[in-house]
Amino acid sequence: MNEQETLRVSKIRNGTVIDHIPAGRALAVLRLIGITGSEGHVVTVTMNVRSGKLGRKDLVKVENLELVAEQVNKLTLIAPTATINIIRDYEVVEKRPVKLPDRIVGILRCINPGCITRQPMEHVSSSFVVVSKSPLRLECEYCGRYLEEDEVLRQLTQQ
Amino acid sequence: MWKFRDVISILDFTREDLEHLFSVTDKTLERSLDVGRPLDGKIVATAFIEPSTRTRLSFEAAAKKLGADVINLEPHLSSMAKGESLTDTLRMLDDYADLIVIRSPYEGSAKHAADVCEHPVINGGDGSQHHPTQAMIDLYTIRSLKGRIDGLEVGVVGDLKYGRAASSFIYGLTKFNVKRIWLISPEPLSPRPELMDRLRSMKVDIVKTEDLEEAIENVDILYVTRIQRERFPDPAEYEKVKGSYVITKKLLSRAREGLKVLHPLPRVDELSNDVDDTPYQAYFIQAKLGVPVRMALMGLILGAF
Q: Any transmembrane segments, and where (chain A) (predicted)?
């Protein structure tokens, strides 16, 4: 990283740095972990910076907030390469691995319009179990229909 | 093993569970008119949001034979017609009844009902995936007629994509050691990938074909299903496949000796009436067995057997 880019991604004192996000998905990452900007945290989003590993990558820094495992794990849906660094007093005190949860509740939409989770009157949260991690394949716990990786990405990046 | 259990999918049951159900059904049939009233004082609620003849009436008949009272939700006469949700309706039924039988066009509604209700829920058919009690009846019928399920070659013909009875029956077969399952359908009605993946993971010997005649020469059981017009997203697609297969007496003349034809009914045009008076016909027996199997099922769930 050159000096200009170092400035761009300057250190934070306390909080979380999500690194190695596939380029262009930082905003979807924020949406997925539930950060809207109205919480008051200082949030820095850096997109399309050079990366040895990924070619280009995105980076998100959230000050004074340590992400919990549940928030972190959802990230595997759109950013399986992401690394989570917990920062305290400018030091990385913990690198949290991103682990795909066994069940994904309420984030995604079943593709089957006849599924009970798609009936607005019934207020049933969607729920998927992971059938395959790579390529990602989820199965609706209600109707059994598969949700494939491209559809997961489409839903989470185009909201 | 059965007491207070929800019946959502045939996949939730082991071979041992099913064999126990079948042996209780045997006893129910042997004692036919003398089972007593073990469910006296219990209330069974049926909530059929989709049309049904055999399933609803055989549940009702079975419950009454066991001495239970039955209350029926009539969607068009209930507050559902005013826009009340299925979820709220279920909460109310759960307060009134000891057991709830539900059929809904929404897939997964039986699982949702089981989540919402404290009392046991039986899936009377939801969407195009699950109709577990029909599969139990189908398997019991085969066992009754053939003396076994293991070792048989079974053909399933028709709408394998949208037909919930077909899917549940196929899943049910995987609980036993059948020799081979023939899946016979035109390509647009072939089973969904979810079902095929499950069959592959269970290492079941499968033949997928459009050639009905070849299949008929090889199977011991032919399970015929209606093409589910109401589940086609596009009516034009239905027009393309309707009438794809018609099982006739003439076609069955090539069959193995002892072949039995099952059909969950209703039939439309896929099964000719000229099969009714042949030794192949087993679908009326199958329909009749709906009552004793459902008696055994409800008796087990409510702790009477």
A: none
pTM of structure: 0.88
CA of B176: how far to CAs of B15, B39, B269, in Å? Answer: 7, 31, 31
The DSSP call for residue A14 is: S
Residues of A in contact with B196 (CB under 8 A): none
The answer to whether A143 is annotated as binding is: yes
Q: What pLDDT digit, counting tens, does each position of B195-213 carry? A: 999 899 888 999 999 999 9
> Which CATH architecture describes the domain A3-96?
2-Layer Sandwich (3.30)
Say whether B106 and A122 touch across the interface (CB within 8 A).
Answer: yes
Q: Do A124 and B112 touch (CB under 8 A)?
A: yes
pLDDT in tens, A15-51: 999 999 999 999 999 988 888 889 899 999 999 999 8
Residue range of the domain that includes B120: 10-130+290-301
Structure tokens at B214: 């070849």
List active site positions of B.
54-55, 82, 103, 131
Q: How many domains would you assign to chain B?
A: 2
Chain A residues in contact with B104 by the CB 8 A cut-off are 116
- Residue A85 tokens read as 């660094």
Reported residue count of chain A is 159
Q: First-to-last CA distance in chain B?
A: 11
Cβ neighbours, 10 Å, residue B27: 13
Q: Does domain A103-157 have CATH number 2.30.30.20?
A: yes
